[in-house]
């Protein structure tokens, strides 16, 4: 795979030179217009060719970046805005996250007969944090994260807009985090 990199880079250089050459032809054939005049973009065949070559350049840059990095470039969206395939987490990642969580927050559950039970302390912290939420915020959080419904499904059940559901959930998450941080501060004293 790495042997393709020099070929892709050479193709990019050639394509960029070709686009520059096309731009010179366009500038010679169609000089700049005076202020207020408009030119039809469809009337310039070189412009269409230039557009296609620019598309090829973008695709080649994307492929080159993928080859160099070893993974898909440009995943910069938050997890809830990604497609379903991008939201899937590999088992190894879950194990790493579990170890990190235990290291930073302690064990959140106790295994009894292979069933998950939440410890009494964690249950108290959750009840305390949830008590600060309004009914709408509780409903939005529980439907979204406990019942694993999509934002649209939650909005349909609550009979409000998706944007409102998201704002309720965001506010609820902030309140819960603030409450948990406050409890951790009280524990330290």
Features:
189 residues; mainly alpha; Arc Repressor Mutant, subunit A; two-stranded antiparallel sheet; DNA binding; Sigma-70 family RNA polymerase sigma factor; RNA_pol_sigma-70_dom; RNA_pol_sigma70_r4_t2; sigma factor activity
Distance between the termini: 57 Å
What is the name of the CATH superfamily of the largest domain?
Winged helix-like DNA-binding domain superfamily/Winged helix DNA-binding domain
Shape: elongated
The number of E-state strands comes to: 2
How many separate structural domains? 2
- CATH fold annotation of the largest domain: Arc Repressor Mutant, subunit A
Element order, helices and strands? HHHHEEHHHH
Topology diagram in text:
Elements: H1 4-29, H2 45-69, H3 84-87, H4 91-105, E1 109-112, E2 115-118, H5 120-131, H6 135-146, H7 151-158, H8 162-188
Antiparallel strand pairs: 1-2
């Amino acid at each position: 795979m790495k042997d393709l990199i020099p070929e892709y880079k050479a193709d990019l250089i050639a394509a960029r030179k070709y686009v520059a050459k096309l731009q010179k032809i366009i500038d010679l054939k169609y000089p700049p217009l005076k202020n207020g005049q408009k030119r039809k973009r469809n009337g310039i065949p070189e412009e269409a060719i230039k557009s296609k070559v620019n598309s090829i350049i973008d695709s080649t840059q994307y492929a080159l970046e993928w080859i160099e990095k070893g993974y898909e470039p440009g995943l910069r969206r938050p997890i809830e805005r990604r497609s379903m395939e991008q939201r899937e987490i590999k088992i190894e990642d879950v194990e790493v996250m579990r170890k990190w969580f235990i290291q930073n927050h302690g064990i959140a559950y106790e295994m009894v007969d292979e069933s998950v039970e939440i410890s009494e302390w964690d249950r108290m912290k959750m009840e305390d944090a949830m008590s600060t939420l309004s009914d709408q915020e509780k409903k939005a959080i529980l439907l979204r994260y406990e019942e694993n419904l999509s934002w649209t499904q939650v909005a349909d059940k609550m009979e409000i807009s998706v944007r409102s559901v998201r704002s309720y959930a965001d506010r609820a998450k902030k309140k819960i985090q603030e409450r948990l941080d406050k409890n951790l501060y009280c524990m330290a004293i």
